[in-house]
Amino acid sequence: xxxxxxxxxxxxxxxxxxxxxxxxxxxxxxxxxxxxxxxxxxxxxxxxxxxxxxxxxxxxxxxxxxxxxxxxxxxxxxxxxxxxxxxxxxxxxxxxxxxxxxxxxxxxxxxxxxxxxxxxxxxxxxxxxxxxxxxxxxxxxxxxxxxxxxxxxxxxxxxxxxxxxxxxxxxxxxxxxxxxxxxxxxxxxxxxxxxxxxxxxxxxxxxxxxxxxxxxxxxxxxxxxxxxxxxxxxxxxxxxxxxxxxxxxxxxxxxxxxxxxxxxxxxxxxxxxxxxxxxxxxxxxxxxxxxxxxxxxxxxxxxxxxxxxxxxxxxxxxxxxxxxxxxxxxxxxxxxxxxxxxx
Length: 343
Description:
Layout: E1 30-32, H1 36-42, E2 48-50, E3 56-58, E4 63-65, H2 71-87, H3 89-94, H4 97-118, H5 134-147, E5 154-156, E6 163-169, E7 178-183, E8 188-193, E9 196-201, H6 207-211, H7 213-218, E10 222-223, H8 225-241, E11 247-251, E12 263-268, H9 282-292, H10 300-303, H11 324-340
Parallel strand pairs: 5-12, 6-10
Antiparallel strand pairs: 1-4, 2-3, 6-9, 7-8, 8-9, 11-12
Helix pairs in contact: 8-9
């Protein structure tokens, strides 16, 4: 059985060590955090990426050190996702959930490492430095153990490492071809690739996917961009409410595990004495939603006009899924109300 690498032991981040194994590598042994095909398709190489200390870098500048022997495995993963992304949302949904999770996880980890290194000599010291947050480091350790599945064929035994959702943005409504959102504190990330939007909560071992299964089923249709934002708000707030961190245990494969697996990861949470989710609070959810709806000028006051039922664009007044066109009409009415209301 392989020995899992733990870069948090001594905070071993930065160049010179393979990010998956810890073995020494040369300066030339790196891979882009955002794959070449992503940079080429969406013109990302020189696009600015803003960090928590208010400094900026570019998408193309972010790289991770990688042992040359592992390069073919990560290249194969990128090829899988690239082919699916070119085919559209249905093809991305058809990918094994753990593969799509690994793809998101590699990019998320690359951003995290960049932030962590930058915070050693920040432009402006963040209010909550990542390395000083004990609970956050615990979450990242669990996440990184799960990400070790990039090294060798891995079986996540009877669980998924995180909840991954694939949405379809309605092409009738204007929206950027590529968008990236991430929250390092809750380990969530979303990426828009053309009409496909991939949303991942990266260390919940599927709890959020179970909690949102009906909403996700209702969202299997072309969505207005504001409806996509609402779905993301629900997932992001769910990650904020998640109260447990899974314990990850590696073991040798047995005949009952996936054929060809070289590593099996078991996950365990204390769901007897611990609460899985903290209580839902509409005020806090409304704040999350407002943070993802600025493009449409929706305020927290509008969102929480009924404090017992926050505003929804995914659902109509009768709590039925509504199409993108109905959401667009609803937005137009809200915009008109904003203009006509006295200051």
